[in-house]
Amino acid sequence: MGMLSEFRDFALKGNVLDMAIGVIIGGAFGKIVGSLIEDVIMPVVGLAGNVDFSKATLKLKSADPAIAGSTDIFMRYGTFVTVTINFLILAFILFLVVKAFNTAKKRFETQKPAAAPAGPTVEQKLLTEIRDQLAKR
């Protein structure tokens, strides 16, 4: 089997299509959650301290006037704080989504009727026939 035909077999499997759809939906869901965090939740968090975290900096070194082209050096920790808060909110939202999915899954599984017991195996049928024949003797 050539590499091209192996790739075709791989690409045409249902799992690849399912994975591609999951990635696309995940990207769209990520945009929704990102907007929720940045546009709805972060302004409320900013109200608590009246701070815009994204612009928070710490001056590490002042520019030296004796050196031409010298500039102030800042640590921009606000962006890190914003990204960390966004991550925690995103992780919590995903936890809630997974928890709701698992709860719904359990509910639907308990509503399904129990599967009918499987019939006897070939070996069990043969043993039953042997038992019946021995009983007739």
Explained architecture:
- With 137 residues, the protein is mainly alpha-helical.
- The chain has a single domain (3-61, 71-113), classed as Orthogonal Bundle (Non-ribosomal Peptide Synthetase Peptidyl Carrier Protein, Chain A).
- Helices cover 69% and strands 5% of the residues.
- The chain is built from four helices and two strands; from the N terminus they run ααββαα.
- It has a two-stranded antiparallel ribbon.
- α2 (14-49) crosses α3.
- The longest helix is centred in the N-terminal third of the chain and has 36 residues, at 14-49.
- The two termini are 59 Å apart.
- The model has no long low-confidence stretch (mean pLDDT 82).
Integer-rounded radius of gyration: 32 Å
Mean of all residue-level pLDDT scores? 82
| CATH architecture grouping | Orthogonal Bundle
CATH superfamily descriptor: Large-conductance mechanosensitive channel, MscL, domain 1
What is the topology, as strand order, of the major beta sheet? 1-2
Largest sheet: 2 strands, antiparallel
Quaternary class? single chain
The percent of residues in helical segments reads 55-70%
Which helices and strands, and how do they pair?
Elements: H1 3-11, H2 14-49, E1 58-61, E2 73-75, H3 77-111, H4 122-136
Antiparallel strand pairs: 1-2
Helix pairs in contact: 2-3
In short:
It is built from 4 helices and 2 strands. It is mainly alpha-helical and 137 residues long.
